[in-house]
Amino acid sequence: MLKKKNLVFLGPPGAGKGTIARILSDETGLTHISTGDIFRAEIKGGTELGKKAQEYVSSGGLVPDELVGDMVGSRLAKDDCADGFILDGFPRTLPQAEIFKNVLDKIGKKLDLVVYFKASDDVLLKRLTARIICKQCGLNFNKLFSPPKKDGVCDECGGELYQRADDSLETAKDRLEVYYKETSPLIDLYRGEGLLLEVDGEQDKMKTYPELLEALS
Ligand code: ADP
Ligand code: ZN
């Protein structure tokens, strides 16, 4: 069993949070909560929440804190989070960190570790703009660095691969800018609380994963 199991993954878009979160979740059973995935699903499903989130997500901006906070609050209270969770993409602003603290207090949970994935803009933009994702299972590929065996088709499930609209160069740049302005202050916040673990987001995921696992054990 893991010693640290209530986790936040922090870092710029394209640093590998989602990829490592999927592996860790598959291998250990921690529940992976990606706020970006939730918003994309809600938008696709045309729900009330999806309608509210749409304009922010498509422009690369942030969905308002309160909306995200409510969503995450009810998600964390579900049974499947009892044995641990990986929050991927939340909190993303200082007010969200405050909301998060209150949510945890309310449901009687404690944050064990914040894993910060560090990578340079150069690498991030290259990764984001070449990223392709399986429509069916959500697995990520990269046209340059980790292409699928067959063009446009997922190795894992045979699903169709697509590019996220917000992975265009222009919107990816905007998302990075939003990250530095709104999200990067959380690094110092959690470092100050002694909760931060920094990992190299540029190295191969097969190297990052065992390092992380050891830090959690
Ligand atoms: P990224 O690859 O940028 O990490 P995500 O899939 O995590 O992308 O998020 C996609 C979009 O969903 C964000 O650009 C933002 O519009 C919205 N979003 C996700 N999480 C949050 C959050 N915690 N607060 C506000 N908006 C969010
Ligand atoms: Zn797939």
Strand portion: 15-25%
Small molecules bound in the structure, each named once: adenosine-5'-diphosphate, zinc ion
Helix content: 40-55%
Q: Let me know the largest β-sheet.
A: 5 strands, parallel
Distinct helical segment count: 9
Distance between the termini: 7 Å
* Beta-strand segment tally: 8
Verbal overview:
By secondary structure, the chain is an alpha/beta fold. The chain has a domain at 6-119 and 182-212: Rossmann fold, CATH 3.40.50. It is built from nine helices and eight strands. The protein has helices at residues 17-28, 35-45, 48-59, 65-76, 94-107, 121-129, 169-183, 185-192, 205-216, and strands spanning 6-10, 31-34, 85-88, 113-118, 131-134, 140-142, 161-162, 196-200. Helix 1 packs across helix 9 (205-216). It is globular and about 45 Å long. Bound molecules: adenosine-5'-diphosphate (ADP) and zinc ion. Adenosine-5'-diphosphate binds at residues 13, 35-36, 39, 56-57, 60-63, 68, 89-90, 92, 96, 166, 175.
